[in-house]
Specification:
The structure is a homodimer.
Chain A (H helix, E strand, L loop, with lengths): L9 E7 L5 E7 L1 H10 L3 E4 L4 E4 L8 E8 L6 E7 L14 E2 L4
Chain lengths: 103, 103
Amino acid sequence: MVDFEKMPLIPAIVQDADSGKVLMLAYVNREALRLTMETGTAWFWSRSRKELWNKGATSGNFMHIVKVMVDCDGDTLLYLVHPDGPACHTGNESCFYREYVGE
Amino acid sequence: MVDFEKMPLIPAIVQDADSGKVLMLAYVNREALRLTMETGTAWFWSRSRKELWNKGATSGNFMHIVKVMVDCDGDTLLYLVHPDGPACHTGNESCFYREYVGE
Protein backbone atom coordinates (compact mmCIF):
# COMPACT_ATOMS: atom_id res chain seq x y z
CA MET A 1 0.00 0.00 0.00
CA VAL A 2 2.97 2.30 0.61
CA ASP A 3 5.88 2.15 -1.81
CA PHE A 4 8.92 3.21 0.21
CA GLU A 5 11.17 2.05 -2.64
CA LYS A 6 9.78 4.83 -4.81
CA MET A 7 9.59 7.43 -2.03
CA PRO A 8 11.64 6.69 1.08
CA LEU A 9 10.13 9.54 3.09
CA ILE A 10 6.45 10.44 2.97
CA PRO A 11 4.35 12.99 4.87
CA ALA A 12 2.07 11.89 7.69
CA ILE A 13 -0.75 14.24 8.68
CA VAL A 14 -1.71 13.93 12.34
CA GLN A 15 -5.35 14.56 13.20
CA ASP A 16 -7.12 14.41 16.56
CA ALA A 17 -9.47 11.43 16.24
CA ASP A 18 -12.14 13.09 18.40
CA SER A 19 -12.08 16.81 17.59
CA GLY A 20 -11.00 16.43 13.96
CA LYS A 21 -8.37 19.12 14.51
CA VAL A 22 -5.29 18.81 12.30
CA LEU A 23 -2.40 18.84 14.77
CA MET A 24 0.82 18.60 12.77
CA LEU A 25 2.60 17.09 9.81
CA ALA A 26 5.83 15.15 9.96
CA TYR A 27 7.68 12.64 7.80
CA VAL A 28 7.74 8.87 7.97
CA ASN A 29 10.07 6.26 6.54
CA ARG A 30 9.51 2.50 6.47
CA GLU A 31 10.95 1.99 9.95
CA ALA A 32 8.94 4.84 11.52
CA LEU A 33 5.73 3.38 10.11
CA ARG A 34 6.65 -0.10 11.33
CA LEU A 35 7.33 1.24 14.85
CA THR A 36 4.07 3.21 14.78
CA MET A 37 2.08 0.08 13.96
CA GLU A 38 4.01 -2.02 16.49
CA THR A 39 3.90 0.38 19.46
CA GLY A 40 0.58 2.15 18.85
CA THR A 41 2.20 5.57 19.23
CA ALA A 42 3.28 7.96 16.49
CA TRP A 43 6.86 7.64 15.19
CA PHE A 44 8.46 9.87 12.58
CA TRP A 45 11.76 10.45 10.85
CA SER A 46 13.27 13.77 11.89
CA ARG A 47 14.73 15.37 8.76
CA SER A 48 16.76 17.89 10.78
CA ARG A 49 18.15 15.46 13.36
CA LYS A 50 18.25 12.57 10.88
CA GLU A 51 16.90 10.08 13.38
CA LEU A 52 13.80 8.14 14.28
CA TRP A 53 11.60 10.12 16.61
CA ASN A 54 8.90 8.79 18.93
CA LYS A 55 6.73 11.88 19.45
CA GLY A 56 6.36 12.36 23.20
CA ALA A 57 9.58 10.57 24.21
CA THR A 58 10.95 13.92 25.44
CA SER A 59 7.81 15.92 26.27
CA GLY A 60 5.68 13.06 27.56
CA ASN A 61 3.00 14.03 25.07
CA PHE A 62 2.66 10.77 23.18
CA MET A 63 0.17 10.39 20.37
CA HIS A 64 -1.83 7.19 20.63
CA ILE A 65 -2.81 5.77 17.29
CA VAL A 66 -6.50 5.14 16.72
CA LYS A 67 -6.19 4.40 13.02
CA VAL A 68 -3.75 4.95 10.16
CA MET A 69 -5.16 5.83 6.76
CA VAL A 70 -3.27 5.86 3.46
CA ASP A 71 -4.19 7.98 0.45
CA CYS A 72 -5.15 6.83 -3.05
CA ASP A 73 -1.58 7.20 -4.36
CA GLY A 74 0.00 5.44 -1.38
CA ASP A 75 2.34 8.34 -0.75
CA THR A 76 0.71 10.17 2.17
CA LEU A 77 -0.46 8.89 5.55
CA LEU A 78 -3.10 10.17 7.95
CA TYR A 79 -2.59 9.30 11.62
CA LEU A 80 -5.79 9.57 13.66
CA VAL A 81 -4.66 9.92 17.26
CA HIS A 82 -5.49 10.59 20.87
CA PRO A 83 -2.77 13.04 21.96
CA ASP A 84 -1.57 13.14 25.58
CA GLY A 85 -0.99 16.91 25.25
CA PRO A 86 -0.21 19.74 22.85
CA ALA A 87 1.26 18.69 19.49
CA CYS A 88 3.29 21.85 19.02
CA HIS A 89 6.65 22.67 20.63
CA THR A 90 5.21 26.19 21.23
CA GLY A 91 2.62 24.72 23.59
CA ASN A 92 -0.22 25.22 21.14
CA GLU A 93 -2.61 22.31 20.73
CA SER A 94 -1.94 22.35 16.97
CA CYS A 95 1.08 23.50 14.95
CA PHE A 96 -1.40 25.28 12.65
CA TYR A 97 -2.26 28.18 14.96
CA ARG A 98 -1.41 31.02 12.56
CA GLU A 99 -3.55 32.18 9.66
CA TYR A 100 -1.70 32.91 6.42
CA VAL A 101 -2.91 36.16 4.92
CA GLY A 102 -0.23 36.71 2.27
CA GLU A 103 3.41 37.80 2.44
CA MET B 1 5.73 33.31 7.11
CA VAL B 2 6.62 30.77 4.42
CA ASP B 3 10.23 30.56 3.28
CA PHE B 4 10.07 29.34 -0.31
CA GLU B 5 13.77 30.17 -0.72
CA LYS B 6 14.61 27.42 1.75
CA MET B 7 11.95 24.99 0.55
CA PRO B 8 10.51 25.71 -2.90
CA LEU B 9 7.78 23.08 -2.59
CA ILE B 10 5.81 22.49 0.59
CA PRO B 11 2.89 20.22 1.42
CA ALA B 12 -0.62 21.63 1.76
CA ILE B 13 -3.16 19.57 3.70
CA VAL B 14 -6.73 20.12 2.51
CA GLN B 15 -9.45 19.85 5.12
CA ASP B 16 -13.22 20.31 4.77
CA ALA B 17 -13.97 23.46 6.78
CA ASP B 18 -17.36 22.14 7.88
CA SER B 19 -16.96 18.40 8.45
CA GLY B 20 -13.30 18.53 9.49
CA LYS B 21 -12.57 15.64 7.13
CA VAL B 22 -9.03 15.59 5.74
CA LEU B 23 -9.54 15.43 1.98
CA MET B 24 -6.13 15.29 0.35
CA LEU B 25 -2.55 16.51 0.40
CA ALA B 26 -0.76 18.17 -2.47
CA TYR B 27 2.26 20.42 -2.97
CA VAL B 28 2.46 24.17 -3.28
CA ASN B 29 5.14 26.53 -4.58
CA ARG B 30 5.21 30.29 -4.24
CA GLU B 31 3.12 30.85 -7.36
CA ALA B 32 0.48 28.26 -6.41
CA LEU B 33 0.05 29.88 -3.01
CA ARG B 34 -0.19 33.33 -4.62
CA LEU B 35 -2.89 32.12 -7.03
CA THR B 36 -4.76 30.42 -4.16
CA MET B 37 -4.86 33.68 -2.20
CA GLU B 38 -5.78 35.71 -5.29
CA THR B 39 -8.54 33.48 -6.70
CA GLY B 40 -9.94 31.96 -3.51
CA THR B 41 -9.69 28.45 -4.91
CA ALA B 42 -7.01 25.85 -4.23
CA TRP B 43 -3.97 25.80 -6.52
CA PHE B 44 -1.10 23.33 -6.34
CA TRP B 45 2.08 22.41 -8.16
CA SER B 46 1.73 19.03 -9.81
CA ARG B 47 5.00 17.16 -9.26
CA SER B 48 4.19 14.56 -11.94
CA ARG B 49 2.98 16.97 -14.63
CA LYS B 50 5.35 19.72 -13.50
CA GLU B 51 2.74 22.43 -13.84
CA LEU B 52 0.49 24.67 -11.81
CA TRP B 53 -2.82 23.01 -11.15
CA ASN B 54 -6.10 24.66 -10.22
CA LYS B 55 -7.96 21.80 -8.54
CA GLY B 56 -11.35 21.54 -10.24
CA ALA B 57 -10.30 23.07 -13.57
CA THR B 58 -10.88 19.68 -15.23
CA SER B 59 -13.43 17.99 -12.95
CA GLY B 60 -15.43 21.08 -12.02
CA ASN B 61 -14.86 20.23 -8.37
CA PHE B 62 -13.18 23.42 -7.21
CA MET B 63 -12.14 23.87 -3.59
CA HIS B 64 -13.17 27.23 -2.21
CA ILE B 65 -10.77 28.58 0.36
CA VAL B 66 -12.24 29.50 3.73
CA LYS B 67 -8.90 30.02 5.44
CA VAL B 68 -5.22 29.15 4.97
CA MET B 69 -3.21 28.22 8.04
CA VAL B 70 0.57 27.89 8.26
CA ASP B 71 2.41 25.73 10.76
CA CYS B 72 4.93 26.80 13.42
CA ASP B 73 7.92 26.06 11.15
CA GLY B 74 6.42 27.82 8.12
CA ASP B 75 6.89 24.75 5.95
CA THR B 76 3.42 23.21 5.82
CA LEU B 77 0.06 24.72 4.91
CA LEU B 78 -3.48 23.78 5.87
CA TYR B 79 -6.20 24.79 3.41
CA LEU B 80 -9.65 24.88 5.00
CA VAL B 81 -12.09 24.60 2.12
CA HIS B 82 -15.62 24.16 0.88
CA PRO B 83 -15.28 21.57 -1.88
CA ASP B 84 -17.68 21.52 -4.83
CA GLY B 85 -17.39 17.74 -5.02
CA PRO B 86 -15.20 14.71 -4.22
CA ALA B 87 -11.52 15.48 -3.66
CA CYS B 88 -10.31 12.13 -4.97
CA HIS B 89 -9.93 11.11 -8.59
CA THR B 90 -11.50 7.76 -7.57
CA GLY B 91 -14.75 9.56 -6.76
CA ASN B 92 -14.26 9.18 -3.02
CA GLU B 93 -14.95 12.27 -0.93
CA SER B 94 -11.45 12.00 0.55
CA CYS B 95 -8.23 10.51 -0.81
CA PHE B 96 -7.78 8.85 2.60
CA TYR B 97 -10.43 6.16 2.20
CA ARG B 98 -8.21 3.14 2.94
CA GLU B 99 -7.04 2.01 6.33
CA TYR B 100 -3.39 0.98 6.58
CA VAL B 101 -3.06 -2.24 8.54
CA GLY B 102 0.56 -3.15 7.77
CA GLU B 103 2.28 -4.53 4.69
